[in-house]
Amino acid sequence: MDFFFFNLMPYGALDLDYDKKFASANLLLPNSYYDPEEGHKLYTRYLDELEYADELGFDGVCVNEHHQTAYGLMPTPGVIAGALARNTKNAKVCVLGRALPLVNNPLMIAEEFAMIDNITKGRFVAGFVRGLGVEYHAMGINPAFSLERFHEAHDLIIRAWTETGPFAFEGKHYHLQYVNLWPRPFSKPHPEVWIPSQGSEETIRWAAHPDRKYTYLNVYSPFSAVETFMSMYRQICEEEYGYKAEDRQLGLAVPIYVGETDEIAAKEARPHIEAFFNKFLRIPNELLLPPGYATIKSLKAIALAKREMLGGGKTMERMNDLGMFICGSADTVRSRLEEFQDRVGLGHMCTILQFGTLPHELTKKNMELFASEVMPHFEGRLRQQQSQAAE
Amino acid sequence: MTSIQTETLKVNDVKLTLRRAGEGETLLLLHGANGSASWLPVFEELSKKFHVILPDHPGFGDTAPPDWMDNISDMAYFYLDVIDTLGLDNFHLAGHSMGGWMAAEIGVRNGHRIKSLTLVSAAGIWVKGTPMGDLFAWNPQETTHQVFAQKSVIDQMLALQPSDEELEVTLKNRQMAARLCWAPRLHNPDLRKWLHRLKMPTLILWGDSDGIFPEPYAHAYRELIPGSQLKVYKNCGHVPMLEARDDFLDRLTAFTQGVS
């Protein structure tokens, strides 16, 4: 299992009382809540943290894309990835991911990623996502065509990376007379592709296809659900596609906090992880799930249960119990991660070691403890499931 | 007493579900994004004077969507085929909200057989400086407050407990409405260039408290369609069939019969 450092770059200076006036830190929160002086400090600090992760020996550094939100300050993650391409030496630079359907010309993503891949000499991972439902409001893109656009944009990008141009791309949503990528990607046949997702079966089946074998990266699900999705991936590979999935095809992104003891960790992490789940990730269903973005079946289930997908009222203990947050001493975190590895056979662990309002000093300490006390334990460690079963 | 019949009409690869009742000149009613329910408060009364046809558009209510139905232009051409299939000639056309937009798009493409046109709280155009309400971002409570103006109606709507099937239909309608209308939002930027082609007598009906298409939209339509007449109802939201029912019925009937 290898370890990546994921920084979501939240606007950590957010006035957390915003929710007395506004329903979400997404889309509707006026940008008067954003102070550029604080913003400059945060970008500097977050870039420092990403670069420090490279020094500490993380296998990769990860950024992503979100629009019009205090939750993440990277509407154009290529800017951050570009800075990291030069200032990191060993870690892979991972954009997890870019929201393909939100652009009107995906060739620009193929170009941007090919540039980063060339600059880093192939030290790059390309993430493809559909974007959150709320981003279809933010970018004025029709959510009912999200899946069609995702698949078409994906095909265009892969063909642009692998076929000799110029050629014409004839799609429904994207139709280009000339596809002739300069630069071609450094990686052969093309950069490694990961698919961050919250576990739709269609996505898992598509990612696992033998033509792709893309890494499925699960985000924000209780561990019981993660286990279901990862078993589904392996089962689809074996039963439908006739091959055995490798661990590298499965990844998990999860916020983690390591302290000197369980008590210290809980005390230090609590306000920041609760702000992360209850304030930064607060999105009403109407914004999160615009019509057409999800299937009628899942929308109906949500409406009947009157469920708030990402609402408030989440405690640290609850998130910890669900495995949506891992918190404690190095020993506690190690055994929790061992359990995750053994139960599903994870290849990649994307650690979110900064979350919500967590300040720099605590982030740094968290990173250092994780890198020195947790990571080495997993060097060369394989999934234990089979050997136990054999005993 | 007229009876409302539901039937299925095969048009190309679509099995169109439609309600039909009454005798006399044909009045084709096109429903909005929320489905045929908005016309039901006046359907029966209208069927005492006209041969009324109210289809569920492809993707709405009981009509399954074909996979090629992508936008309102597709919908307008599809309805020209429906009109051919039904053999309608010299008929009256009325559309509410998204259905009003469709009616205008049908009329500018081929208006020769349309004897009269009624646009009720119609989508289709954008008025610069006057944003539409964002019906896709509202929760059900906000939607009710934006769509209706009268407290008694709002209370009645908020008290409704949709059945499982009604909920599914609502979600399907919303999904198809998003597919057709999300962007450009509920309008065609080119339509206003061609509204002068609507040469048939045209009546525009609107509520002054419409939270989706504010009153300036009514006046813009009135100016863009030569010779059209406009009635704006006071203390009325997006569904005048409900909140101004009596006058709505009288006016639509008198206008349509006056043309006949």
Features:
heterodimer, A: 391 residues, alpha/beta, TIM Barrel, eight-stranded parallel β-barrel, two-stranded antiparallel ribbon, 14 helices, globular, B: 260 residues, Rossmann fold, eight-stranded mixed beta sheet, 8 strands
Question: Summarize this, please?
Answer:
Chain A is 43% helix and 16% strand. Chain A has 391 residues and is α/β, with parallel strands linked by helices. In chain A, the strands form two sheets. Chain A has an eight-stranded parallel barrel, surrounded by seven helices.
What does this structure look like?
- The complex is a heterodimer of chains A (391) and B (260).
- With 391 residues, chain A is of the alpha/beta class.
- Helix content of chain A is 43%, strand content 16%.
- Chain A has a single domain, classed as TIM Barrel (Alpha-Beta Barrel).
- Chain A contains 14 helices and eleven strands.
- The two termini of chain A are 23 Å apart.
- Chain B is of the alpha/beta class and 260 residues long.
- Chain B is 39% helix and 19% strand.
- Chain B has helices at 40-47, 72-86, 98-109, 140-147, 151-159, 164-181, 191-194, 216-224, 240-243, 245-259; strands at 5-11, 14-21, 26-30, 51-55, 91-96, 114-120, 202-207, 229-233.
- In chain B, helix 1 links the parallel strand 3 and strand 4.
- Chain B starts with a strand and ends with a helix.
- Classes of the chains: A alpha/beta (391), B alpha/beta (260).
Task: Provide the fold topology.
The complex is a heterodimer of chains A (391) and B (260).
Chain A: E1 2-6, H1 36-56, E2 60-63, H2 77-87, E3 92-99, H3 107-119, E4 124-129, H4 134-139, H5 146-162, E5 167-170, E6 175-179, E7 192-197, H6 201-208, E8 215-219, H7 223-239, E9 250-259, H8 262-280, H9 285-288, H10 296-305, H11 316-322, E10 326-329, H12 330-344, E11 348-352, H13 360-374, H14 385-390
Parallel strand pairs in A: 1-2, 1-11, 2-3, 3-4, 4-7, 7-8, 8-9, 9-10, 9-11
Antiparallel strand pairs in A: 5-6
Helix pairs in contact in A: 1-13, 2-3, 3-5, 6-7, 12-13
Chain B: E1 5-11, E2 14-21, E3 26-30, H1 40-47, E4 51-55, H2 72-86, E5 91-96, H3 98-109, E6 114-120, H4 140-147, H5 151-159, H6 164-181, H7 191-194, E7 202-207, H8 216-224, E8 229-233, H9 240-243, H10 245-259
Parallel strand pairs in B: 3-4, 3-5, 5-6, 6-7, 7-8
Antiparallel strand pairs in B: 1-2, 2-4
